[in-house]
Amino acid sequence: MKRSAVAAAAFALALCLPTAAHAAAQPDAPALGPAAAVVPQVLPIGVAVSALPLAVEDRTGYQRTSFRHWNAGDVPADGCNTRQEVLLAEAIVYPEIGPGCTLTGGTWWSYYDEREVTPAGALDIDHVVPLAEAWDSGAAEWTAARREAYANDQGQQASLVAVTARSNRSKADQDPAEWLPPAPDALCRYGAEWTATKLRWGLAVDEMERDRLLDIAAGCGGTDVEFTPAP
Q1: Which ranges of 124-206 does DSSP label H, i.e. alpha helix?
Q2: Contact 129, 161 (CB under 8 A)
Q3: Model confidence over 18-67: pLDDT tens digits?
C-alpha cells in the first residue's frame, strides 16, 4: 500500500479511536454496548501502527503493585487465577488439574524463542505490553480498577502470552525499540500483538518505539492487526 494511502487510512481510523489522553480523561466512561464491545477491528499492520497516538513517555510514580494481578480470572468459580487460566487456554498438551488449580504435566509452545516447554512452572505469563510501559503510555491516569483489568486481560488473546521465563525476564519492561523476540519468525506476530494491545487500551507510543514498529511493519506485508477496544 502506498504511504499516502496508509496515512489516509490511519487518519480515518484515528478519528474513531480513543487516544491515550482521552481514555485517561474518562477512566470511568460507560462500557460500549454488547454488540459494539465484541466486534474486532482488523487493519494492515502498517495502518495500525500509524494509528497509534504519539506521546512522550513518563514513568514518574510507577509501582508494579499499582496493577493488581493475578486475580480470580475470568471464571472465579473455576478456582484458577488469571495465570492458570492463560496456561490452560494456551496448552498444546492439556495438563491435569488438581486441587487449588494445581497443574501437572502439560506442554506449551513459547513463540518468543520457539521452544516447547514443560512443566507449567517453567513458564511466565508475559504482559505483551509490560505494566511499566503501559504506565508510561497512559495507564498512570487510570483508576486502580482499570489497571487491574489491564493486568488480567483475557479479552484479547494478544494481551497475555505464556513464554519461557528466560525470554520474559530478558525482555523485562522494554519496548520494541529496546527488545524483540530472539526467534526471527516471531517478529511479525510480536509487532502485531504489541500494536493490538496498545490500540485495545488506547495507549500511546513514543517516537523510537513507533519507528521500530514501522520498520517491523515494512517487513511484514500481509500481516494484520486484530484488536477489540477494551470496555
Answers
A1: 131-136, 144-151, 165-171, 187-201
A2: no
A3: 444 334 333 443 343 444 446 899 999 999 999 999 999 999 999 999 99
**pLDDT, tens digit, 9 for 90 and up, residues 148-170:** 999 999 999 999 999 999 999 99
Q: How far apart are CA 100 and CA 78, in angstroms?
A: 9
Q: Residue 138's closest CA among 198, 227, 225?
A: 198
Kindly state the cell numbers that stand for 211: 519507528
Residue 46 to residues 8, 51, 158, 178, 185, Cα–Cα distance (Å): 12, 9, 17, 20, 18
Locate 219 and state its grid cell: 517487513
Helix (H, G, I), strand (E, B) or coil at 93: strand
pTM value is: 0.84
CA pair distance 141, 219, nearest whole angstrom: 34
Neighbouring residues of 70: CB distance < 8 A, sequence distance ≥ 6: 81, 82, 83, 84, 125, 151, 152
Longest dimension (CA), the chain: 57
**Which bin fits 179, alpha (ψ -120 to 50), beta or left (φ > 0)?**
beta
